Structures are given as C-alpha cells and as structure tokens.
Amino acid sequence: MLNIKEIEIEGFRGFTKNTPIAFNTPLILIYGGNHQGKSSVLNAIEWCLYGDKCLGEKSGIRERVGKGESAWRVANDNTDRANVKIKIESGKGIFTISRGEVKGKGKKGKSTKVSLPDGALKDGDDAEQEIARLLRVSFRDFATTVYQHQETIRDFVIQTPSERSDAMDRLLGLSDYRNILDGVKNSDVSKIQKELVDEFSKFQTRIDEARKIRQKDIDDKINEASEKGLSDEELNEGKLLKLAESTIEDVSIFAEQLGIAATAISPLSNWKGTGSFVTNIKNECDHLWAGSPDVKEQSEKQKKRSEIVSLKSQYETQYRNFKTKEKELQDFEKENGNKGEIENRIKDVIEKIEAIDKEIKRTSSKAKLVEEGISLLEMAAPSKADICPLCGKSELNLLEHLQKEWREKIEAQVRDLKNQKEKLDKKKTDLERLGKEHSRLSHDNKEEKNRLSEIIGNISKFLHKELSGKDDPTAMLSKEIKNIDLRLKEIEDAIRSKREKIDAIFVKTETMNLLYEILLLKDKLEEINKIQKTDEYKRQEKIRDDVSNLVGEIEKLSKIIKQCMKEEAEEKIASARSAIDTYFRKITQNPGFRMLNIRVNEDKRTGVNIYTFEDQDGKDPIPILSQGDLNSIALSIFLGLAKTIRDSHPLGFTLMDDPSQSLDLQQKARLVEVINELCEMKSVIVSTMDDEFKQLLRDNITKAKTMFMFSDWMPDSGPKISEEI
Amino acid sequence: MEMGTLKLLQELQKKFGVRSSPSGPFGKIVQKLLALSFHEIGFTNIVERGVQGVDIDLTGNSNQKFTFEVKTTEKLSISLSSDNVDALRDRTKDGYSPVIAVLRLSPLEDWIFAKIPIDEIPIGAVLIESLRRYRMKDSESQLSTIFDKIVQKHFDGIIKRGEQYLKEQLKQAGITAKED
What CATH topology corresponds to B3-178? Predict the structure, then answer.
C-alpha cells in the first residue's frame, strides 16, 4: 500500500511560501473557512501525482475547463514558480515525487522528478514512467475512486436530471466518452453535408430555371410549327432532311422550266447544316430568278420606262421655262420697243446733245470776249474807261453797259442750254439701260431655247426619230410609257406562276428554319443532360458520396462510443451496486428505502447515458429525496466504486473534499461512521469547512487523527496552518 | 434522369400529384413505372403493391431478394414512418433486403437505391443525401436509362388513362400488382 507521509507545497494555487504538511495518522482533517487553501492541498496531491492529466477539459472536472483568464491556474499569482513534493511510503521504502512549473518569459518550463528508495533520481519522462509504475491507477480512476471532488457531489445535488446524468458519467469516470461525443458533435460534418446539399440544390434550381426558359422557347416554336400544319411527330431531323431533299428537287424543276442550268446544291446531311443549306437554296433561287427571260425583260422595260419618265419630266419642265422667258421678252418689247427702236431713240438723243453742246460753245466764245473786256476795262485808267480795249471804239459808260449785257443775256442763255443738255443726258442713260435689259432678256430666251432643243434632241435620239416643231414630245413620250406599261402587265402575268413556285420553295425553307430552331433548342436542352457526364459532375458526386460516408462513419463511431459508455456504466454500477446500496442505506437510514438501484438507459434523442434510480418497489425516488439524500447517493457511488476498485491499485489513501455538503446532522454522523470504517483500511484525508462535521470526525473517528486548521489566508503569504490537538 | 423525363414526370405530377400526400396517385404512378423498369432490366418475381405495406418486391439475377419502399419528392429530404420501417422489417423475415428508393424531382437527379440494414433505417425526416452511403450504384445506373425510356413510352397512356393504364401494363408484363 502506498501512503502519503508528507507534502511540501510552494507557489501552488492558494500557497506561496514553501509549506510542509506531515500526514502521519489514518485520518487527516483539513478544516477552515472558504478560500483558506484547503482544497489546494488535495489539488496539490493530485497535480503532483498526475501533472497535466488533471488539467483542462480532458480532466473531466468542470472547474478545470477554461482558457486564458478563466483557466484553472497551477501557479500562485504572486509567485514565479509552483512546486509540490510528496513523500510516499511503500513496502520498498520512501519515494519522493517532485513536480514543478516555472512561469515567466524565457524561464517557462515544467519538471518532474522522482527519488527512489535506493537513492536513484529520475526526471522527465523517466520520472513520469516511474510514477505510473508506482501508482498503477489511471487518472480517471483516481478522480472517481480515490479523490472525491467537491463538484461531483455539488452537481449531483443541484443540477437538472440531464445534468445529473452528466454528473453521474463523471462520477463513473466516463467523461472521456462525453468529450469525444462533444467533439464529434462540434465537428459539424452533418452541417457541412447540409451546406453541400444546399449549394447543389441552388445549382439545380438555376438549371431548372434555365430548363424552363428553354422549354418555353421550344413550346412556342412547337405552337408555331403546329400553326404551320406540322404535327408533333414531324418535329425531328428526319422531317427536316426530307424537306431539304424535296427543296433541291423543286429548285431543279424550276430551273428546268426556266431553261437555265441549275447550280448543284449539296444535300443536307444533318440538321446542324440547315443554315448554310437554306442560304444556298435562296441564292440559287435568286440566281434562277435573275436569269429568267421574263424577269430580264421586265427589268429592262422597267429601266426604259424609268428613263422615259425622266425625259418627259425634263422636257415639260424646260418647255415651261422657255415659254416664261419668251413672254418676258415679248412684254418688254411691247412696252419699250425692240432693239432697233431703242437704238434709234438713243441716236436721236445723242444728236440733240451734240447740237446743244455746239450752241453752248458758241455762246461761250462771245461770253469770253465780254468777260475779257470787262476785266480789262476794270483795270484801265478812268480816262480810258469808255474805250473798248478789244476794238478801240469809244462808247459812253462802256463798262457798265458790258457788265449789264453779261448779266442779262449771256448768263441766262448758257444756263438754259445746260438745263436742256442735262435732261437729254438722263434720257440717254435711261435708253441705254433699256437696251441692256433687252439684251439680257434676249440672251436668257436664247439660252432656254437652246436647252429645250437639247432635250428634244435627246428625246429624238431615244425615240430614234427626228422631231419637228410639229411634234408634241410630251404626247409621244406618254404614248411610249403606255406601251411599256402594257408590256409590263403582260410580263407580270407571265412570271406570276414562276414567283409562286419560288415562294413555295421559300415556304419550305422557312419550315426548315423553324424545325432547325426547334432542334437547336432541344439540343441546348440536351446540353443539361450532358452535365451529369462531365468530370466535374462526377467529382462532386464523389465528394458527396465521401461526405455521406464520413457522416455515416462518424455516426457509427458515435453509436459505438455511446454503446461503450453505456456498457462501461452498466459494468461499473453492476460491480458496485451492492456497495452503493449499502452505503446509501447506511448514510441516509431512510425507513422508506430498503434498496437503491441505478439503471443505465440510452437517451433516445441524444443516445448518451441517462440514469434512473429505483427504490425497492421499482419507483423513482429522486423527486422525493432531499438534497442530503442526493448528496448521499453521490457519496455512495464514490465510496462504492472506491471499494470495488480498491484491490486493483496500491493507493492506501482516499481524498474527500467537502463531503458533508447538504447532509443533515444524522447523515453527517453516519458518514463519519463510514469514514471510520474506511480508516480501518486506508488513510483518509478530508477537507471541510463544516464545523459540525469536523466535530463529529474528531469525536467519533476511533483511529489516530491529525487536524490542521487553515486560517488567515493572505494573497502573498497563503494560509496560516496550525495543528489542533 | 434526363431533362425530358423530368419534364414528363412534372406534367404527370401536375395532373395526378397530390402535394400533401407522397402516396397519392402520382406517387403510385412513379412506383409502377419503377416496377416496369425493373422488369425491363431483367428482375423477376416482381410484386407491386398499391396497398399498405412495402411498395415493390423483386428478385435479382443472383436470386437476391429486395423489398422497396419508394419515395418521390421535390424536397431534400423524405419522411420515413415507423409503418414504412415495420413493413420492410416484415419482409426481411422472408429473406428480403430492404431498400429505400428515392427519386427527387429536380434536374441532375437520378434514382437513389439505398440498401440499408433494417436496424439502421432512420424514422422521421431523412436527408436524401444521408442515403448516399448505402447506394446500390450498379443497379441505379442500370436502371437510369431504362427508366427514361419507360417514362417516355408510357407517358401518353398515363396522361389519357391514368393509373389504370399502368395497371394493365403491369399485368401484360407479368408483374403481380396488388391493389386495395
């Protein structure tokens, strides 16, 4: 048997300075109020023996789950290292196990050391192996059958039925299964599968929408085909190829009728060539049509008619222009005379002007002499004022006489002549303007006449006939147009039947186009079917199969885990049933209970264990049990399992943390009796804050006992520990 | 399933389908078309049931016997009742292997034949995708093209005369049809 003889705790949880505690009696009682470091002693034993196994989610202990600030920390916040050393006595001697953890940057590290009875020292992995060999009990069994944690009782007492089942699993050491199942649940493979299906379903919806649009197009075309008299059975490639064949035949017959050699058209071999086939047919029809004699003549006649209409129009316009100009000239001459008359009138005026000019000249000569005489007389000496300076004749008051004659006769005569001349000059200008206007009108008239002659010449040339002034070109051209129209009418009647044949061919090509469109749309619809044959589609199929298989495998795995979980629970309960029942009845001594049975069932919804409790009548006692009774069940399970497993490991001690919670005084007393019995076989280390329970232990445990009082805990110094006698 | 087949089935569903009842006339029509397809690819001893119980029983080439629960849906899941499972379980006593046959009426979908051990058949809403791991792929691909042809072949007859037409076709093919 292995028994703890001493523990040294430094920097671990509630402890700061190195604190040795000796365990020399079968009962060690650690007593004190809340937060005094009591549980830290039991935790220190567990951590020293099992290290990281007792930390985090894998520990199966709820309070150890958490990260960062909420993590369950090993080292005390006020120290940079945690060290726990335990001396364990075995049949071979003393083993000293040391476990340490250093905090802080650069120094962080963990250490494990074991000092063997022979003095040998092991560390690291060797030390861990040595510890495992020594203890021979897994952490899971330790946590469920050696160390009764506070929370296993607390959860059992206060949680809902489903959480009580969870607590039961932890009491039975099945939390690993729960953790795996949680992991499976959190992996959300089913969710991934659902997302995969949803994505594919969206793709299918898009495909379906595209399909419906294409189908609608096809249905519209089929209706169109039905209106053209095609039945559903005819909407296929066979019908299209037959139409193509008969069209080629129609074209050939048509060419024969026209007497024109047809160009060879390649037959249509599959519906996809319809477009170019129809183009070839149309081109050939155009070619035959253009080569037809009737059509040729029609074209020529239409061309000639167009030319005649143009000539007629030109002639009529020019004729009107010419007549207008001719009338303008006639009106002018009527008013102003012809060219000769105007010229004669100009001549008369010029002659008159010339005569006046002569008279003015004559009068001016005389005037010049008088003027000179006046001038000389005015300059002569007064004695000579009456002598004519020009002829020497003497005359009284000659100067005055000359001056009067100048004023009254010569000046008036010259003025009159000048007025006459001015009038004649104006008349001459007017006549010259009329002459010019006449010239212009004559010129314009001549121009229009020339143009008209030119057009008449063109008409003559076109009609192959010399036209005389007696001919009416308009009437001649109108007659010519009428003749062409009559001929065109004859041609049109002649070619109508040919046009109908071509139209019939075109109706066939239109039907072919319609069939082609239907086949094309169907082909496009068929493209969707091909999706399933693509590598991408096959790949996604494989992925979906793989995911489905994975989900299936995970489901199977979950099922197996749940089955194992159930079987292990049943096995443990079966082996400990009697002990559990005995402990329960012993602690509670409820006269209504003669038996406590625990059954393991499978939760139909989740598949995990669900525990039911039965009394001697097979009834569920839980609803009527007090919290103390529930605590008793939890304690009984722990003690029952501990008793069952006792012989399978060498640990000679049991750790109990606050076991009396919710128990009444009698139940506490009976628990003490159970612990007293337990002390016969093992040493028991009990931590409690319960004064009543402490008193009961002190008074009723018949084995030697040590009681440590934990008090005055301070963050930087830890608890004050005193040994009570 | 070809798009053309889907279109025809949707037309049949429009005419005969009862959306709220998967076992309505349309469901029975598809079931009969499936039975005819099985006959076409060589399965023997085919029994098609329009009554309560499993939908189709048949025997394969290697004398392996299968019993089918047939489901047609537009959704991503089907509903399996305890009656469905009980009926399949009942047939297993006679050596039949239970198969859930599902056809989802959607593009790019084909029949899924899920051969599931009777104790693993789930009850309630079952995601069709979850049946993939039990697929009888060879039988599915063998049946796929035949089913397209069978639907196209019998479409007009069904449109004109409904389920009665298919009952006659089953009889002609020598398929035992059990009706209520």
Answer: Trna Endonuclease; Chain: A, domain 1 (3.40.1350)
Is B2 in CB contact (< 8 Å) with chain A? yes
Q: How far is A270 from chain B (nearest CA, A)?
A: 22
Backbone angles phi, psi at A37, to 5 degrees: 95, 10
Backbone φ and ψ of A685, nearest 5°: -110, 115
Reduced to 3 states, what is the DSSP secondary structure of residue A468?
Answer: coil
pTM over 0.80: no
Q: Using a CB-CB distance cutoff of 8 angstroms, which residues of chain A are in contact with residue B4?
A: 525
Lay out the sheet containing A121-123: strands in order across: A19-22, A3-10, A81-90, A93-102, A109-115, A121-123
Q: Crossing angle, helix A293-336 and helix A473-531, to 10 degrees?
A: 140
Token pair 């010449």: residue: A457
**Average of per-residue pLDDT values in chain B:** 91
Report chain A's mean pLDDT, rounded to a whole number.
89
The strands making up B65-73's β-sheet, listed across from edge to edge, are B112-115, B97-104, B65-73, B56-59, B44-49, B176-178
For the stretch A514-530, pLDDT in tens is 999 999 998 888 888 88
- CA of residue A270 relative to chain centroid, distance: 42
Digit-coded pLDDT (tens) for A91-129: 899 999 999 999 876 667 899 999 999 999 999 999 999
Out of A250-264, A365-379, B107-121, the most confident range is B107-121
pLDDT of residue A107: 65
Q: Do domains A1-136+650-725 and A161-187+556-648 have the same CATH topology?
A: yes
Least Cα separation, residue B128 to chain A (angstroms): 9
Q: Are A609 and A602 in contact (CB under 8 A)?
A: yes
- SS3 of chain B: CCHHHHHHHHHHHHHHCCCCCCCCHHHHHHHHHHHHHHHHCCCEEEEEECCCCCCEEEECCCCCEEEEEEEEECCCEEEECHHHHHHHHHHHCCCCEEEEEEEECCCCCCCEEEECCHHHCCCEEEEHHHHHHHECHHHHHHHHHHHHHHHHHHHHHHHHHCHHHHHHHHHHCCCEEECC
- How many angstroms away from the CA of B108 is the closest CA of chain A? 6
Mean pLDDT (whole number) for A25-45: 94
Amino acid occupying residue A375: S
Candidates 1.20.50, 1.10.3470, 3.40.50, 3.30.70; CATH matching A161-187+556-648: 3.40.50
Contacting B with CB below 8 Å, chain A residues are 193-194, 196-198, 201, 203-204, 207-208, 211, 215, 525-526, 528-529, 531-532, 537, 544-545, 547-549, 551-552
Query: In angstroms, what separates the C-alpha of B32 from chain A's closest C-alpha?
Result: 24
Chain A interface mutation, best of B108, B115, B120, B134, highest count of A Cβ atoms under 10 Å: B108
Integer Cα distance of A576 and A583 in angstroms: 10
Helix ranges (H only) for A228-273 are: 237-258
Instruction: Please say whether the beta carbons of A268 and A242 come within 8 A.
Output: no
Distance (Å, whole) CA A431 – CA A352 = 14
Phi/psi of residue A87, each to 5°? -100, 125
DSSP state, residue A686: E
Residues 109-128 (B) with a CB less than 8 A from some CB of A: 109-110, 127-128
CATH 3.90.960.10 fits A1-136+650-725, yes or no: no
The residues facing A654 across adjacent strands are A684
Measured distance CA(A389)–CA(A405) in Å, rounded:
17
ipTM of this predicted complex? 0.86
Give A551's contacts in chain B (Cβ within 8 Å).
130, 133
CB burial of residue A157 (10 Å; 0-12, 13-18, 19+):
buried
Closest CB to A529 among B2, B128, B133: B2
**C-alpha closest to that of A653 among A176, A142, A228:** A142
- A548 or A411: which leads in pLDDT: A548
